[in-house]
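question for whoever is on the cluster today: can someone run the full assembly for these? two chains, 380 residues total. i dont have access anymore since they changed the login thing
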Amino acid sequence: MKRAPDEAPVVPLGRHGLAPDVVAAHQRERLFEATVELVAKRGYRNTSVDQIVKSARVGYVAFYDLFDGKETCFLAAFDRIVEEAAEAVAEAIASEEEWPGQIAAALGCLIDLAIADPKRARIALVEVQAAGPTGHARYEEIVDRAVPLLREGRQLSEEAAQPSETLEEAVLGGIVWIVQQQLVKGELREADPLLQESIQIALSPYIGDAEAKKVAAATLRSRAKRA
Amino acid sequence: MNDVAKLEELIADNQRIVRRAFESEDEWPDSLRAGAYAQARWIADHPQEVRFMMLETLWASELTGALRDQFLAEYTAMIDAGRAVAPDPDAVPPMAAESVIGAIIQVLGRYSSGQGDERDPVAAVPEMMYLAVRPYLGEEAARRELTIPPPSD
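^ ran it for u. tokens below:
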């Protein structure tokens, strides 16, 4: 049977001489791709283990050897997406010396990732919240991971040192909400307007509106040059 | 009662109470503050229902998504009413109200998380007002919100 070019190759049936861990890694990869594809298209609640297994062309026994059920399979996919994004963000931040530039770079990186692969973005930002209390808690963990970087902004001025206690969480919630809305409506296409507004939302409480606008404008100019 | 019908009923009840409070004040942000306290008290009085709304239906399906959008559109409009009294409306970011809605959902989401770090929604109102007022009236007016005590009722 001919295989579509974008499908992951299947481990041959019967005797193949491959080590069990190689086979498991291979199956895990196909299950990851199938989970992302199906959940992004159908939603977490409307996706079943049956559909994932069929789409990944993996047997039920192999599936349950790797995961307890749909939730653990989905959360493994979520974790992988988050870790890959975190690596990309760390790299983007490392290229900037000043805190405002680091925040702008992190936001630019995340928005670019979401536009490049809206399915993965949908898993990480939308569907995880449909995955019950465990999914919701996992989503909160990524917010908590981002809070310290934003909180560094409190050191920039005396005025910025005493905003509301939940400021960072709220700022992140505001930006993520806008991205979620655009993802759900299929409107997440252009990075620059969203990035400009996100930078202003993130930086204004710490460095003021005027300075935040300057950073946003400089970031867009720099991206335009690189493009 | 199915989930959609239950959600519709909760939304109608919530909107009726919050709208009445919002309309009891003539000036923004007083109107928004009155609405925010009504909302916070409703949330405090309906923990199970809020949990259902936040965790069970917020992202559950296209239909509940449409209800969510309808529900939030009213509150987005209440926040964005600040544009009319902003000293420089053009300087207010286009998505200011949406980002405030997201901020509120994020902060109050933990109230309904059931993960043990629930917050008192009424106590969170000054911080929510700080976030809502800041894009429209600036830092000074926003900080004033942090010092205004809750209404006696």
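summary bc i know u wont read the tokens: Chain A touches chain B at residues 43, 45-46, 126-127, 129-130, 132-133, 136-137, 140, 143, 159, 163-167, 169-178, 180-181, 184, 197, 200-201, 204-205, 208-209 (CB under 8 Å). Confidence is low (pLDDT under 50) at residues 1-7 of chain A.
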